[in-house]
Amino acid sequence: MDKDMHSRLAALGAVPTALILLAASPAAAHGIVGDRFFPATLITDDPAVADELTLPQVDGFKTADDPPADQVDISGEWSKRITANFGVSFDGAWTDLKTPGGDVSGFQNFGTTFKYQAITDAPHELMVSVGLEAEWGGTGAEKVGADRTSTLTPTFYFGKGANDLPAGLWWARPLALTGVIGYAVPLAHAAPRSLESGFAIEYSFRYLSAHVRDVGLPSFVNQLTPLVEVQLETPIADRQPSTGTINPGMIWSGNRVQFALEAMAPINRASGRTVGAVFQVHWFLDDMFPHGIGRPIW
Amino acid sequence: MVTRPILVAVATAAALAPLAAAAHAFLQRAEPRVGSEVAKAPPAIRLSFTEDIVVPFSRVAVSGPPGFGGAGLPHAVAGDARSLAVDLKRPAPPGAYTVRWRVLSVDTHVTEGDFSFQVRPQAAP
Fold first, then answer.
1. End-to-end CA distance of chain A
2. Whole-model pTM?
3. Whether A182 contacts A154, CB under 8 Å
4. Which of residues 109-168 of A touch B (CB under 8 A)?
5. Residues of chain A with C-beta less than 8 angstroms from the C-beta of B114
6. Which residues in B lie closer than 8 A to residue A27 (C-beta atoms)?
7. Quick one: which of A103, A43, A42, A40 has its CA closest to A72?
C-alpha cells in the first residue's frame, strides 16, 4: 500500500474496519444483495433493513368521496438499523383536505415498524424480511380521518432479482420484483380487519450496464429505474371491494439520495376519482454518515 | 395552507445535502465493456466505479476458456481514484471471460458484482 493510501485510510479510521468488512459479507444496506440494488419504493415498502430517511414525500389526489375532496399528504419516515438485520422505522404524515365544506388539515396517526431481514441470498438476488407495523391510534387528527384505534399489521416482505433467467433472455435480467403482504388487525373489537398487499416491478438500467450488457447509455440513464407499483387493501370480513392504486413511475438513484415520481391511478371508483401523483426524496443515511448515525447500533 | 409544510420539508431535506460523504461503489464502466464481444483479448481489464475505491483491499478474479493464462492482482490507475485494472496474462485465447469483482469504497462499504465478455475466434488468414 502506498503512503498516500495509508494516510487516507488512517484519516478515515478505516483500516481495521476494512479488514473486518472484507472478511464478511458485502453490505446489505438499502437493498443491496449480490449484484442487485433494490431502490426504496414509494408506495410499498422494500424488503431491506437500512439506515435511510424519506423526506419529503408529497402525494396529491382526489378522494373517492362524493363530492370528492382534494387531498395533499406530506410525509416522512426515518429508518434505523439496530443490528445489521434488524431495524425500526418511524413515520408520520400531515394531510391537507380541500372539501366543498371548507379546508381542514392535521397529522395522520404516527406509525412504527419493526423489521427483521431474515434471508439475504446473494447468488439468487433474494431478500426476505418479516415485520410488525404499528399505527398508533389517537395520535393524529380525526378531522383528516385519523383513526382513534391502534392497528397492528404483521407483514411479510420479499425482493427477487431476475438474474436466474437464461442467457437468451439477457435483456430481462435487470427486472426485479419486490412485494409486501400484511394482515391489519385493529385493536378495537368490532373494527374490520384487512389484507394490505402490494408489489413493485422494476427495471434497473444500472444492472443492465454493470452486469448484463453495456449498451452505451449515458450515466444519468444508467441511474434510472422505471417501475410500476400496485397497492391493494382488501377488507376481510365484509364484502366491500378492494381499494388501491396502480403507480407507474421512475426512480433516479444517486449514491446518497434518490428522487422518484409516480402517477397514482385508482383501480376502481371506491379508490378515487382521478389520477394523482407522488414525489419522493429519499436519503441513504448509511452512505452519508457511515461512521455515525448511518451504521447499526450493535 | 399546504405550502408551508412543503417548504419546511424541502428546506430540511436541502440542509442534508451538504452532509453527503462517500458511498457504495457501483460499477460505472468496464473496458472491455460489460457483455461485449472483442476481436482479441486486451492486455488489461479496467473497472471504473461511482466512488473512490481502496485498491489494496479490493479483489478481481477473471476466469476464461481452457488455456487462459490467468490475471494479475488489481492495481491502481494513475490519476483515477475510482478505477482499478488487472493485467491479463498470456495466452488469452478466444472464448467467454467472466470478471468477478469485490471492492472497498473509501467509506468502508463493500460491494461486489460480475460480468462477462467474449473474445471472438481468430478469422482464418
1. 31
2. 0.86
3. yes
4. 122
5. 35, 211
6. 24, 109-111
7. A103
Q: What are the strands, taking DSSP E only, across chain A?
A: 32-33, 36-37, 52-62, 70-81, 86-99, 102-107, 111-121, 126-135, 151-161, 175-186, 194-203, 224-235, 243-253, 257-266, 276-284
Instruction: Give the count of Cβ contacts less than 8 A between chain A and B.
Output: 141
Q: Is B103 on the interface with A (CB under 8 A)?
A: no
Q: pLDDT in tens for each of the 298 residues of chain A?
A: 344 434 443 443 433 443 333 333 333 346 889 899 999 999 999 999 999 999 999 999 999 988 899 999 999 999 999 999 999 999 999 999 999 889 999 999 999 999 999 999 999 999 999 999 999 999 999 999 999 999 999 999 999 999 999 989 999 999 999 999 999 999 998 888 999 999 999 999 999 999 999 999 999 999 999 999 999 999 998 778 899 999 999 999 998 899 999 999 999 999 998 999 999 999 999 888 888 888 899 8
* Cell numbers at A159, concatenated: 425482493
For residue A35, the chain B residues in CB contact (below 8 A) are 112-114
Domains, chain B, ordered by start: 22-119 (2.60.40.1220)
In A42-81, the residues whose Cβ lies within 8 Å of chain B are 53, 55-56, 58, 72, 74, 76
- Cα–Cα distance measured from residue B66 to residue B69, given in angstroms and rounded to the nearest whole number: 9
DSSP string covering A245-296: EEEEEEEEE-SSEEEEEEEEEESSGGG-SS-EEEEEEEEEHHHHSTTTTTS-
Chain A residue numbers with beta carbons less than 8 Å from the beta carbon of B110 are 21-22, 24, 26-27
B20 to A37: CB separation less than 8 angstroms, yes or no: no
Instruction: Give the gap in angstroms from C-alpha A213 to the nearest C-alpha of chain B.
Output: 4
Q: What b/e string do you get for A268-283 counting C-beta neighbours within 10 Å, with b at 16 or more?
A: eeebbbeebebebbbb
